[in-house]
Design brief:
Layout (H helix, E strand, L loop, with lengths): L6 E3 L11 E3 L1 H17 L9 E4 L8 E4 L4 H4 L3 H15 L3 E7 L2 E6 L1 H10 L17 E5 L11 H19 L3 E8 L4 H13 L5 H4 L3 H25 L4 H7 L1 H14 L3 H25 L5 E4 H4 L2 H11 L4 E2 L5 E4 L7 E5 L7 H15 L4 E7 L3 H13 L8 E6 L2 E2 L15 H19 L7 H21 L7 E2 L2 H4 L7 H20 L14 H4 L2 H23 L2 H21 L8 H24 L9
Parallel strand pairs: 7-8, 7-13, 8-9, 13-14, 15-16
Antiparallel strand pairs: 1-2, 3-4, 4-6, 5-6, 10-11, 11-12
Helix pairs in contact: 1-3, 4-21, 5-21, 6-8, 6-10, 8-9, 8-11, 13-14, 16-17, 19-22, 19-23, 21-22, 21-23, 22-23
The chain binds one RNA strand of 77 nucleotides through β3, α15, α16, β16 and α19.
Length: 623
RNA sequence: GGUCCCGUAGCUCAGUUGGAUAGAGCAACAGCCUUCUAAGCUGUGGGUCGUGGGUUCGAUUCCCGCCGGGAUCACCA
């Protein structure tokens, strides 16, 4: 459809050349093998039946053809088959320089000319590895963040936001038109709880009067409600009431429910309070979003969309897709799909979470030409999204199949699970500040930024602290639960964001010095004509790693996994650091070799910057 | 109880559509700064891939059972 699986553009938008549009070496070899098998064994094999993979490090070669599946056609031993194939490839496939056979594995060495050509023809300018938008680019809506307005954001939200933003970047880089949306849950009983507590115990406190960040202030009253509510329940049970009754009949709970009724009846006083307190929260959220570097193209509020699902449910009821019970509640029977029955409207006619999501989905697909809709929501809601798509399908919406739940795992702490009410959450703002603080302490201890103005230094602490946090979270496979150990997250060595950033900063330093010395323009580094001859082993393996980048970007898009980029960029930085350690760059006497190393350095920096930006991580010029 | 997810080094994690002797980081120990940033580089030790079967040329990967952990099945969102 959009891009064929095996091709991509070497050069950016400009450099059209003989190699500008080339097929990857894998598909090239694949085709050759197909032809050879047809010729030698008179058999037409499917591409999927052929196995070509990257050669493992401990063997010589770049690509490996696994010949076991071909033995039934060749009717020879694995070694003989592999050797036949190898010889045939040598003559038919010019990029194959030599081969070796170990057991049933045919290891192919790709010639140096190919790698040199790759370096010469590619535009390492930030577009490398990415696919631009075209006429036929699909539109992808991606919902993430989706906070409640009764408490500040915590570590769990951070994972959601970082994933959501990174996925938008990755999908954009894969030639999609991405629309980032946020659905703010700004109404409901939990919102009323903090409103009520503020009204009863707040004494008119405002963010301005107390100096508190708005979302934190409101969150404090949410906690306060819970404390006071518990006290009431205790009193009631001392008076002989059952725990269940106490929970239901505590005055605070009744008052909160009354407040929700008034809100739905658009009581002016309640609406006023609601508008004011939500306003505080939004200001707080805005700050946190800005600090995290995430953004949205459109923000939906549940207060504006929660009614829209009711109409659709009513229509479904008429068509007999749903059923009404004697008490007036409306249900969807999913027992035929192996699930339970699902409530869609309460007996009092009010809507539930599912009703709202049905409504917003319909609204969005009507409003935008969406080809695909991704919800970045925790795996605790797997059931919800399974039901949502099923119901939309039953309602006859063909686009229901274009809905995808990007289900990510929970963040756990060494102390166990995070629970808002028990105060065991890691607050988002606190965490960000701590990481930036740590970056500062460490930089000062190492004397890294001597000579920088305080503003410049602060900017860099910011980049490093946030880089550490983002990388720590994004490097884990999003589908899996992850452990967040604060002590470990603050480590800036090894497989961490700062390690990658440091590698970048060091390259930039070399490039600055080379520009100062007039050796080359900072962006004008080009590999020399006889690169194929000059490349040493380390430079060659660095080149091969750069070559892999476009594939990694695609794979990250296909699997919706920023972790692939993190793993890749870490490997790349490690590879470069070894090269940097082992070979002089500016001090290299041979001008051609020096030019080659400068170019490789610049290309590496460019790919690091690109990969990191797809994760929403900035890189510093110095650190 | 039904459905679903997870189990890889002491800890945190990688491990491509099934492929060769299962890899990193942290932690521990030992080296490398008169040379482009040592937030770096190099080396050592560390594993019955939870467990028992099955599928096949080959299983950490696919299927089944069991053990252990988690999520969910609300007139909460």
């Amino acid at each position: 459809m959009l891009i064929s699986a095996n091709t991509y553009t070497f050069a950016g938008s400009t450099g059209i050349s003989r190699m500008a549009q080339i097929t990857s070496i894998e598909s090239l070899v694949l085709k050759s093998v197909q032809e050879i098998v047809l010729k030698l064994y008179q058999t037409q094999v499917e591409e999927t039946a052929l196995q070509i993979q990257e050669t493992r490090k401990e063997f010589e070669g770049d690509l490996t053809v696994v010949v076991f599946p071909l033995l039934k056609y060749s009717r020879k031993t694995a070694e003989a088959t592999a050797t036949d194939l190898g010889n045939a490839l040598l003559s038919s496939c010019p990029i194959v320089e030599k081969f070796n056979v170990i057991k049933g594995f045919l290891n192919l060495v790709i010639g140096r000319e190919f790698w040199a050509g790759f370096l010469q023809e590619s535009a390492f300018d930030g577009t490398f590895g990415t696919t631009g938008i075209s006429e036929t680019s699909p539109t992808v809506m991606i919902e993430y963040s989706s906070p409640n307005t009764n408490k500040p954001l915590h570590l769990g939200h951070i994972r959601n936001n970082l994933l959501g933003y990174s996925l938008s970047q990755i999908l954009s880089a894969n030639g999609n038109r991405v629309i980032k949306v946020n659905l703010v849950n700004d109404r409901g009983i939990h919102i009323c709880k903090s409103m009520l507590a503020w009204k009863l115990f707040g004494n008119g406190e405002t963010p301005a009067s107390s100096g508190k960040k708005g979302d934190h202030l409101v969150g404090d009253y949410y906690v306060r409600f819970d404390q006071e509510y518990k006290k009431e329940m205790e009193t009631l049970s001392h008076q002989g009431m059952s725990a269940e009754d106490a929970a239901r009949k505590a005055p605070l709970m009744l008052q909160a429910q009354e407040m929700l009724r008034l809100w739905e009846a658009r009581d002016p006083e309640v609406l006023q309070l609601w508008t004011t307190m939500n306003g505080w929260v939004y200001q707080g959220f805005e700050t946190t979003y800005r600090e995290l570097g995430v953004s949205f193209d459109h923000i939906y509020y549940e207060s504006q969309t929660y009614l829209s699902g009711k109409q659709i449910v009513a229509e479904g009821l008429e068509k007999g897709i749903f059923e009404k019970r004697p008490d007036g509640s409306v249900w969807c029977d999913l027992t035929g799909d192996g699930l339970d029955e699902k409530l869609l409207l309460r007996s009092d006619g009010t809507s539930v979470y599912m009703t709202q999501d049905i409504g917003t989905a319909c609204q969005r697909f009507a409003q935008y030409p969406i080809d695909r809709h991704i919800y970045v929501v925790g795996n605790e809601q797997n059931y919800h999204f399974q039901v949502l798509t099923l119901i939309l399908g039953k309602l006859g919406y063909a686009w229901a199949r274009n809905i995808q739940h990007m289900s990510y795992g929970m963040v756990e702490l060494p102390s166990g699970k995070m629970k808002s009410r028990e105060g065991t959450v890691v607050d988002a703002d606190d965490l960000i500040e701590e990481m930036v603080q740590t970056a500062r302490d460490m930089a000062q201890e190492l004397g890294k930024l001597d000579g920088y103005t305080p503003e410049q230094a602060r900017r860099i602490y910011d980049i490093i602290g946030k880089g550490a946090l983002k990388y720590f979270i994004l490097k884990v496979d999003p589908r899996k639960n992850m452990m967040f150990d604060p002590r470990e997250s603050i480590d800036f060595n090894g497989n961490t964001g700062p390690f990658v950033q440091y590698s970048y900063a060091r390259i930039r330093s070399v490039l600055r010095k080379s520009a100062e010395a007039g050796i080359s323009a900072e962006t004008g580094n080009q590999v020399p004509g006889d690169t194929a001859r000059l490349l040493n082993d380390k430079e060659l393996s660095l080149t091969k790693m750069l070559y892999r980048y476009p594939r990694v970007v695609r794979e990250a898009g296909n699997t919706l996994s920023p972790a692939l980029l993190a793993n890749y960029v870490y490997e790349l930085a490690k590879e470069y650091n070894q090269f940097y350690h082992d070979f002089p760059i500016l001090k290299e006497a041979d001008q051609d070799i020096r030019a080659l190393r400068l170019a490789l350095s610049e290309y590496t920096a460019s790919v690091i910057e690109s990969a990191m930006s797809l994760m929403g991580i900035e890189v510093p010029e110095r650190m």
